UniProtKB/TrEMBL annotation:
Keyword Hydrolase carried by entry: no
Stretch forming the signal peptide: none
Keywords, in A-Z order: NAD, Nucleotide-binding, Oxidoreductase
Binding, substrate: K66, K90, S344
GO MF entries: glutamate dehydrogenase (NAD+) activity; nucleotide binding
Gene3D superfamilies linked: Leucine Dehydrogenase, chain A, domain 1, NAD(P)-binding Rossmann-like Domain
Protein name: Glutamate dehydrogenase
PROSITE patterns documented for this protein: GLFV_DEHYDROGENASE
PANTHER family: GLUTAMATE DEHYDROGENASE, GLUTAMATE DEHYDROGENASE 1, MITOCHONDRIAL
Phylogenetic lineage: Bacteria, Candidatus Kaiseribacteriota
Coiled coil feature spans: none
The organism's place on the tree of life at top rank: Bacteria
Length: 409
């Protein structure tokens, strides 16, 4: 099953417990627009290559399309379509005035020079700028895209359109109109969601945490959980991981990885694989890297009390059912990793108003929003006697239904 088929399966499962109108159902089965473009890049060796780029504008009932741009050799239109669908749900669950979109380029950015990386980034904007803009489609960072890449894109868009509001791309550096708190937003948001639901899920005050993934999301999550007194017992990157029953210092782990290129040989820790990490005994398991990590093959081996999804699509629907029967709460990606898109929306708002909010203000607003919506999701799941994912979808579908009704009046 490809990722988009899995996303539609989640929609179908949600509508069983929370029916929607046929009009909304039809609007959610397909994107409003999909664009595939060829991006020509003059390479450093004198040759010219064409790279495939994408933008999927899934649904705009609640506002401009919002979603990141990922650079990855396996990126394809089906993956981007699924991610754009989830962004539609995520924005509705967060209650922000945004629709769902996503973008990407099929490329391994590690094989590009900085000049080539800038050229491909500006080329994506040149190919797509007519359908972008603060009122149409607002892009952000995702896998392998950085604040610097966002600043190149924002600059290219301004050159092409003359729009100086700087609100078409978010996740920019602070000195280029970025928002304070953006880098830590997804990891911090995961903590806020967890804290809002901690007593509901009957977890102790201090918990043990295993985190798969050390990118921006997983790395920041490890730090923020550690800073708030929780014990991070396992961390991993794409090559493998480490485990220590006594706990790890995420800052020390990150420094070691930068110096050595991997976690292999980290002192006072046992080596583990990404597959083994998922099955460790812990209070909180945080998949923060890849899709389709918890499946019907390994779901029965999961020993965490709660799965907090900071990656997109890490748990299949078959696994959802197994975990639900085991009494393991899965806090779904469309709620748990919403901190990034919320703070991106705050950046968009600051740019349009020509304001700058400090980090305490940004994260304070984020915490308040996520605490409120986490409890709303919990209440929906209890009312419908279902899992948290379907509870979250039910909340999103209610809000999308309201937007559809409003658009007709």
């Amino acid at each position: 099953m490809n990722l988009f088929d899995g996303a539609l399966q989640q929609l179908a499962r949600a509508t069983v417990v929370s029916p929607i109108s046929d009009a909304l159902h039809q609007r959610l089965l397909k994107p409003e627009r999909e664009i595939t473009v060829a991006i020509p890049v003059g390479m450093d060796n004198g040759t010219q290559e064409l790279f495939e780029g994408y933008r999927v504008q899934y649904n705009s009932l609640r506002g401009p399309y919002k979603g990141g741009i990922r650079y990855h050799p396996q990126a394809d239109i089906s993956e981007v379509r699924a991610l754009a669908f989830w962004m539609t749900m995520k924005c509705a669950i967060a209650g922000i005035p945004m629709g769902g979109g996503k973008g990407g380029i099929t490329v391994d950015p590690k094989k590009l020079s900085k000049r080539e990386l800038e050229e491909i980034s500006r080329g994506w904007v040149r190919a797509l700028y007519p359908v972008l803009g603060p009122e149409r489609d607002v892009s952000a960072p995702d896998v392998n895209t950085t604040p610097e890449i966002m600043s190149w894109m924002a600059d290219e868009y301004q050159k092409l359109t003359g729009d100086t509001r700087n609100a078409t791309f978010t996740g920019k550096p602070l000195d280029a109109g970025g928002s304070e708190g953006r880098g830590a937003a997804t990891g911090a948001g995961g903590l806020y969601v967890f804290e809002a639901l901690k007593t509901k899920t009957k977890l102790p005050t201090s918990v043990t945490v295993a985190i798969q993934g050390m990118g921006n999301v997983g790395g920041n999550a490890a730090k923020v959980f550690h800073q708030h007194g929780h014990k991070v017992i396992a961390m991993s990157d794409s090559k493998g991981g480490i485990y220590s029953e006594k706990g790890l210092d995420p800052d020390a782990v990150e420094i070691y990885k930068k110096q050595n290129g991997s976690l292999k040989g980290f002192a006072s820790a046992e080596e583990t694989t990404n597959e083994e990490l998922l099955e460790l005994q812990c209070d909180i398991l945080i998949p923060a890297a890849f899709e389709n990590q918890i499946t019907k093959q390994n779901a029965s081996n999961i020993r965490a009390k709660v799965v907090l999804e900071l990656a997109n699509g890490p748990t299949t629907t078959d696994a959802d059912d197994i975990l639900f029967k085991k009494g393991i709460h899965v806090i779904p990606d469309v709620l748990a990793n919403g901190g990034g898109v919320v703070v991106s929306t705050y950046e968009w708002e600051q740019n349009l108003k020509n304001e700058h909010w400090n980090e305490d203000e940004v994260l304070g607003k984020l915490r308040k929003l996520l605490e409120r919506e986490s409890l709303s999701v919990w209440e929906r799941s209890k009312k419908l006697k279902t899992d948290l994912r379907r509870g979250a979808f039910a909340l999103a579908l209610e809000r999308l239904e309201e937007a559809l009704e409003h658009s007709r009046s």
